[in-house]
Design goal:
Blueprint (H helix, E strand, L loop, with lengths): L24 H13 L4 H4 L5 H6 L2 E6 L3 E2 L9 E2 L9 H12 L3 E6 L10 H14 L4 E5 L7 H10 L3 E3 L9 H4 L5 H13 L4 E8 L5 H13 L4 E6 L16 H14 L3 E4 L15
Parallel strand pairs: 1-4, 2-3, 4-5, 5-6, 6-7, 7-8, 8-9
Helix pairs in contact: 4-5, 5-6, 9-10
Amino acid sequence: MELVLENTLPIGKPKWLKVKLPIGQKYTELRGLVDKYKLNTICASGSCPNMGECWGEGTATFMILGNVCTRSCGFCGVKTGRPETVDWDEPEKVARSIKIMNIKHAVITSVDRDDLKDMGSIIWLETVEAIRRMNPETTLETLIPDFQGNERNLDRIVEANPEVVSHNVETVRRLTREVRIQAKYDKSLEVLRYLKEKGIKRTKSGIMLGLGETEQEVIETMQDLRNNNVDIVTIGQYLQPSKKHLPVKEFIHPDQFEKYEKIGKEMGFRHVESGALVRSSYHAAKHIL
């Protein structure tokens, strides 16, 4: 799941979490297209702090399969409940949005759809295929749920063959039951390993900090990802979406993020994005290299 950060931060947050309003000609153009055609991007709907930078580079993130999730993770601001009926026209709509916005690199993510027999994997495949047909020059990252580890559903992602496939472990092993509730740490590692074994060129995962994890636990999580041949890791600061969600236990200092970046590179990750404002799709276009 893609975690986003609101631009308005309560008083008391450290200065390194303050964000600038997005600017620039490319951002202004895309903002106008999104508003004019009512396009659905996580960047805009979640007020992501990196929206101006990413849009300026021609990168945007789209969420498919509705906005209601079957899971109730303690960190996520997406609604939980009974999801909407699948919109089988959605693949073409997303592909058309990418064409209108002239996106060079698109990140596709979704809610969990445990209510569906295929867990949404068919729409995932059809979305990637539609984007390829309509935007042959656009590169893709799919930020996928775990599909409960079902290999048939994962094979549809393999068949789609995006440049990058991402699945977030979100937190350290000890905190997984509290933070992710219905998900399992080892299941996520198995998913990432399976994708790599099946031929996905670049695999990627993300971790949130500030939920009570220790430095050693973060390093162990990074090592677990490397041991399963994950190529790219993103590490960012958790921020509480609402009072109903898990509280922030610590604001991680930028120096600590730099330390994790150095450790990650020494471990052999191809790319390490580590910083307070880093989110899953930050610098996503660079991760295909």
